[in-house]
Amino acid sequence: MDFGHATEQFLVAAKNLIMKYFFIIFLTQVFSLNHSIETKSLFSFKGEFFDGTPMGIPMNVSSFEDGSFILHENKVESVKLFSEDGTLEKVISQRGRGPGEFLDIDNIKVNNSGDIIVLDHKQLRISMFSKNGEVIDDYKVFRSRPRARSIHHRKDSLYIFGSIRYSELGNKTSTKLFFVTDQKFNRTGIEFGQSMEYTNEDSESLPSFVMAGGKRLSDNSVLLDNGDLLVSPMLYEGYLLLYTAQSDYQSHQIVNVEKYGKSYEEYEGTDRLNFDLVRKQGLSMLSNQAGRRIFYHFNRSLGLFKLNTGEILHFAQIKRGEEADLIVEFINEEGSKVIGIQTLRSIGDIDVKENTSKKDNHSRIDLVFHHMDKNNRLYVSRMGKDYVPELHVVQIKLNK
Fold first, then answer.
1. 314 or 248, which is more confident?
2. How far apart are CA 113 and CA 286, in angstroms?
3. How many CB atoms lie within 10 A of CB 93?
4. CA-to-CA distance for 303 and 372, rounded, in angstroms?
5. How many other C-beta atoms lie within 10 A of the C-beta of residue 399?
6. Which residues contact 92 (CB under 8 A, 6 or more apart)?
7. Which of these, 223, 242, 216, 224, lies nearest to 299 by C-alpha position?
8. Residue 129 and residue 74: Cα distance in Å, rounded?
9. Rounded distance, CA 360 to CA 373, Å?
């Protein structure tokens, strides 16, 4: 046997294998670089606006075609209008029970016509304003206190409301997640989506009874496009749900995106879930009182946003070891395929690690993704030093 020739053949084969390996790595890197974003901070409010007016905790943001935007803050029952550069132009509403006045704002939205919609939780009312602050109408359409996770305006002028809990707004006996109204916010009879649809059937999925109550979707985990809804569960299991208007939202397609490991873990202690336990053990815990079981919650959907170029961005927190990472998934226009994934170390001037709370069992990214406007400007809030609320406006640039 010619050992020298055999050795030479082995070395050639090994060399070819190594070259093939590095070529695959190279292709993987090129693919990942084909879809990435750059983020640049434009301006921010830190505890106050540019004119010195104090700012509350940002709750809801919506924007107009020209880049101006409106803001609702926690316990500040007003809607403030800002120019594109962040100048406070007008306080549109105030606290009260009169026309266009509010006791407890739950959600706000700029509709397709450029009018402002405000949902008052206590007064069971939706109010509509023009941009200059004139009251267009007040609509008393709810039987019980509404809580809207999201408000969407379809191209045919109908509205879709997403409930903050697994019940129809104003009807606690329903388990539907979404319902459709006409232009005056009266129900059309179209309602769809149940909590069971958010649970995988395999043995590793979260038990369905855990999904039976409480807030499970973040405010921006629902994206409306051309009358269809793309929904990402807050209990992020690597699935998106796509509801189609063509089927009157009565059926859905599950789109598998990516698995990132455990999304939850059962708490082994015997304590009941309360504020002290959450503060001690972690910031993301879920409870099912019927089953008396408590879960740590790791992976979370932080928001779905559509760029003006058509691609969809899905921001999510995933668990890697004992740390929380912030990723963005690039999803095609149909919502059917992930075309790229990027880990983000910062959002503009906001360092992700510096805004991550570390607990014994897991970490949590303490950033709230509110809104993206037609100019790809992302509105992100956080609690800064000494618990001063901040709102950051960040320009998103897509590289592909």
1. 314
2. 39
3. 23
4. 10
5. 11
6. 70, 78, 79, 80, 81, 116, 129, 133
7. 216
8. 20
9. 37
Instruction: Return the structure tokens found at 328.
Output: 């963005």
**What pLDDT was estimated at residue 236?**
63
Tokens read off for 229: 């809804």
Report the range of poorest mean pLDDT among 103-112, 121-130, 196-205, 373-382: 196-205
Q: Among 22-31, 215-224, 275-284, whose mean pLDDT is lowest?
A: 22-31
Residues of the chain above pLDDT 90, percent: 38
Radius of gyration in angstroms for the set of CA atoms belonging to the chain, rounded to a whole number: 24
User: Other C-beta atoms within 10 Å of 377: how many?
Assistant: 18
378 within 8 A of 74, measured Cβ to Cβ? no
Q: Is the dihedral of CA 275, 279, 283, 285 positive or negative?
A: negative
Separation CA 17–CA 229 (nearest Å):
46
Please check the confidence at residue 346 and state whether its pLDDT lies above 70. yes
116: nearest Cα among 91, 144, 96: 91
Region 89-104: what's the mean pLDDT? 87
Listed in sequence order, the residues at least 6 apart from 101 whose beta carbon sits closer than 8 Å to its beta carbon are 77, 93, 94, 95
Please give the structure tokens belonging to residue 160: 């879709």
Q: Which tokens in the block code for residue 202?
A: 């395999």
